[in-house]
Amino acid sequence: MTERNKQLTVTLVCHSDLLGGAAVVTYRLMQALAHEGVRTRMLVFTKISSDPAVAVVGSRSIRGIKFMAERARIMLANGFNRDDLFKVSIANTGYAIDHPINIEGLSATDLFAMNTLLGGAIEDQTVATLNATRAIWDPSGKWTDCEFRRYAESFPDMRLERNEGEQPLIGIELK
Known about the structure:
By secondary structure, the protein is an alpha/beta fold. It has 5 helices and 7 strands.
């Protein structure tokens, strides 16, 4: 471990510290880096552990109110149809970071890792790649009426579906 690495703070950003697979992996990464002598912090919306290196961004009650307001707006827009209520987000009620987040020992020059954002980007790219390489996985053209689609926050993440929107033919869960 170099002297420079001991001064560096690695900040990991995730939705939670211990709630869900990606969160647990991120938390373990933070612990492993700390074990190697790297200063680490984790920024989360939902804190489960009592680890002082994990800091909560925003207030749980305010996030809950904003979430309910977003769902109400969606319900108004879709004619009070509850079937699709949790399949979309209009992304208008998130936590606005329009002021500095002051966390002791954390500065703007620290190294950040945003696993949730990266995971979503990887899933999007995987779907695009599978659909773009159809000639490889469907050389005989038996699946021309199908395409891979990504479904955030659902199981499985990616599905091969017919264009008519029937049940998925194949499901792929990425971690």
